[in-house]
Amino acid sequence: MRSPLSDWLEGEPVPPQLHARVIGDRRLRTRSALGFHNFAAVATAALVLVVLGGGLATVLLRGNRPPTPAGVIPSPQASASTAEASPSPPGATPSSSPAAIQCHTADLSIGLGQSSGAAGTRAVPVNVTNHGASTCMLQGYFGMAFVDASGGQVGPTPMRDPGGYGSTPHAGPVTLAPGGGATFFIHWSDVPNTPQPCPVAAQVEFTAPDQVDHVFVPARTADGTVIAPCSPGPTGLTAVQPGA
Hints:
Layout (H helix, E strand, L loop, with lengths): L3 H7 L5 H8 L7 H4 L1 H17 L1 H9 L13 H10 L15 E2 L5 E5 L3 E3 L2 E10 L5 E3 L4 E5 L11 E2 L13 E3 L4 E9 L13 E5 L6 E5 L17 E2 L3 E2 L2
Parallel strand pairs: 1-5, 7-12
Antiparallel strand pairs: 2-4, 3-4, 4-9, 5-8, 6-10, 9-12, 9-13, 10-11
């Protein structure tokens, strides 16, 4: 007499030699209590147990995903899902910050300090203050020239003086917040080379590093010394340093 199990087995892709093993299994004689559909499910599980063994069948019956074998790298999709599921901690911000812009000459207040002299040379600190609304940066040397009332150059062309007057030979950037200050030195020869007096400068022209706009400052130091650069003596300036 044919049974629903026999009909079901013939409709499944099961090797004929396994039919008898499944039909003869006592664990499958519970169809009256389970109903045929449950009965077929139990039979399928038993067949899997017979063919593949208990370990894998247990995984399939429970619906669990087998663990990733050791040494297997998860797929990019899995990595992306993990990254999406793990947001950055609250309050985290990017570490990068924008660099300060270079100072424009027009945003700087420039004044001459107290002069000093030795060995035929006079020097004076130049105090620079950022009166702009934004932080800016100075690096290197100002442009500078002594000029007369008509704007013509007075004295020798200024030369850069690395390390002069205690300055740093290799000047790094100086960042000026609004109200912040920097300084550098200018110097000139005050020893005449001829019977004629040295020409007197009316103004000092300053141009901030890497800028083209310039300002004019009266050629008189804070202690009242008039700048009168003599030729062919040296005229020069140092690099910008922090502080005012």
